[in-house]
Every structure is written in C-alpha cells, then in structure tokens.
Design goal:
By secondary structure, the protein is mostly helical. The chain has 10 helices and 3 strands, in the order H-H-E-H-H-H-H-H-E-E-H-H-H. A 3-stranded mixed beta sheet has the order 1-3-2, with helices on one face.
C-alpha cells in the first residue's frame, strides 16, 4: 500500500515538473494570463487591473529603477545572486535576523508559479525555478515579465496599470522620479503608495534615483 502511494506521488511530481517546464517555455514568448498572487488577492481587491506592454513601451527609467532597487546584479548573475545570499547568511549568523536576497528572477518565479510567504521549502523551489528561467529566457524577457506582473497596489499589477493609476500617464512616459517612487514601494505595495509617499518612501525613492546613474555599467543586458 505504501509502495503504491509512493509511486503515485512520484508520478504526480513528474507531471507537475513537466507542466511547469512547459509553462516556462510558453511564457518565454507569451505573457501569462494571470498569476497565483492575482487570484489570491482577487476576493479582497475585487479587481485585476493590468495592461501588459512590451519592454520597449516601459520607460528605461523604470527598468533601471527596479534593478537599482531590487537587484543590482541582475545582468550579472544567473538567477541567484550568491553574493547576496552569502551576505544574508552572514548577517543572520551575526544578528539573528534574516534579510531578503531574492533576485528579480526569483520574484518572477515566485509570482508565476508559487504563493506569497516564506518557508525554506518554497524558497528551494523558487531557487530552482529561477535557475531554470534564467537558463531559458533572455534577461530582457525576465525583466519584461517582471514589470508586467509585479503587484503595485490593491488589484493593480504591472507597470502600465501602475503608471495610469498613480501618475495618469503611460509606462513609457514615466520620469525618473516617478519610476523611483514606483520602485520604492515594491517591497510592500499594499502599505505604501507612489502617489502619496511617506517621508520614508520619499527618501528611499531619492536614494534609488541617485543610484541609477551610478550603476550605468550594470544595465548592459537591457541593450
């Protein structure tokens, strides 16, 4: 009985892995119609406000702002920033506090296939998916998907919907300040608003805006 259960479980795992790999291949070219996070948030938000656009129609200022804010080494790592992981582990050993080391690619993996929240098991799956996505997608595609599915408020997803909701403009026309404000709220978009920034968010946005030109050599993969 136990052996039969294990065989069934293994078959289910194989089917799930094949399905996920197939979706990774499909999403390399076609945008995801919806994500688990959108479905989880929908009962409370009551809407999914999202307009997908190609990367060329998203302001370079926003592309650079999210890299400067979320993942400085986006163009240089292969899905996981091992230096950031090592720094996080050292900080945990020294202070007992675990800080995030998620890359943009890891966030794409989580948003496309997983659920919000922590847990080492989920982190392990997320890391494996990030390595797979980075191996199969170009960096521009990874950033394009990220900017089209990122949560930017209650029921607001993607750069185009966020630009309209907060600044009454298209994502292509975002200024550096607006882009920095959007990037600044990404860690907690349900708590903070780019249109009504707290002092903390205003200072964080100013730091991001100042960091953008200093990281000029870190955007090579976007060309």
């Amino acid at each position: 009985m136990i052996g039969r259960f294990i065989r069934i479980l293994l078959k289910l795992v194989v089917v799930l892995v094949v399905l996920v790999l197939a979706l990774v291949g499909i999403y390399r070219y076609a945008g995801p119609p919806v994500t688990p996070l959108m479905l989880i948030r929908y009962p409370e938000a009551g809407r999914i406000d999202r307009l997908s656009v190609p990367l060329r129609d998203i302001s370079p200022e926003l592309q650079r702002a999210v890299i400067a804010s979320e993942d400085n080494n986006f163009c240089r790592h292969h899905g996981i920033d091992w230096n950031a992981v090592n720094d996080a582990v050292e900080q945990y050993d020294a202070e007992g506090r675990l800080r995030g080391a998620s890359t943009i690619t890891m966030q794409v993996a989580r948003n496309l296939f997983l659920w919000p929240g922590g847990g080492f098991a989920r982190k392990g799956v997320e890391a494996g998916l990030a390595l797979t996505i980075d191996a199969l997608w170009p960096k521009r595609r990874i950033l394009e998907v990220y900017l089209n599915i990122a949560e930017w408020g209650d029921g607001i997803y993607g750069a185009e919907a966020a630009a309209h909701a907060y600044f009454h403009t298209d994502a292509a026309r975002l200024t550096r300040r607006e882009a920095a404000l959007l990037a600044a709220v990404l860690p907690n978009p349900l708590r903070w608003s780019p249109a009504r920034p707290t002092n903390y968010i205003a200072e964080r946005a100013a730091t991001i805006a100042g960091r953008i030109p200093k990281l000029e050599g870190y955007y090579d993969c976007l060309r």
